[in-house]
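I'd like us to work through together how a protein chain folds, taking it slowly. To get us started, please write out a protein record for me. Go ahead whenever you are ready, and we will take it from there:
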Amino acid sequence: MHRRLALVRRPSPLLADGLVTHLERAPSVDIALARRQWDEYVAVLERRDWRVVEAPPADDSPDGVFIEDQVVVHGDVAVLCRSGAPQRRAERHGLSELLQGLGYRVVPMIGPATLDGGDVLKHGSHVWVGQGGRSNAAGVAQLAAAFEGHRVTVEPVTVSKVLHLKSAVTALPLGGIIGYEPLVDDPGQWGEFVSVPEEPGAHVVLLGGMSVLMSAAAPRTAQLLRGLGHDVTMVDISEFEKLEGCVTCLSVRLRS
């Protein structure tokens, strides 16, 4: 397989009822604005030559738009996650058939393991898994077993200050780790750590080459990254940020 797919799911009409853990619930979430913001996010992916694949709707699941939490892919293996939030487990409905149709070998995670895809940070041969919130040790072990033979190292890391590992850190195209230091448990554990001045600046989606997608709420971080040679595209996802969402949560990038 040689392709770039982006798996997405439209926002539920119940989006405003999504779970929050580390933030105060916002007084209101504008559903109409959220849908427009989602449309623009998808349009950016398409303009950057990603083929967008829509997952089946999950209108009864407020958090269903945060599809990254349901699937972790490496090579030809797609692991269907079992969320640490029981209310979210119905969100993986319909994904097995879709992923099999795209040519993936689907491995469903089995209890008592829990894992949210937002806790999984991949770059090259490294897979880091946040543990301490929605994902547990059994989830890390099942993910490692699913990727056995893929020549990757699966390593658990502590997460206590944010919802998911990728709420705190993500990887830049050349492998450096970017994060908002007050929310990172141990910045020293990352070999090359780039501290950013805004919390939303900790989240980047790799679009290919030195191109990254990030939140419009982090203009100073965008300036920093451009100074380091990155091509930065910004999108407004304010309504999703009210629910602890970020740019990585809204898609699963399938590179193969």
In short: The first helix runs from residue 31 to 47. The chain has a mean pLDDT of 95.
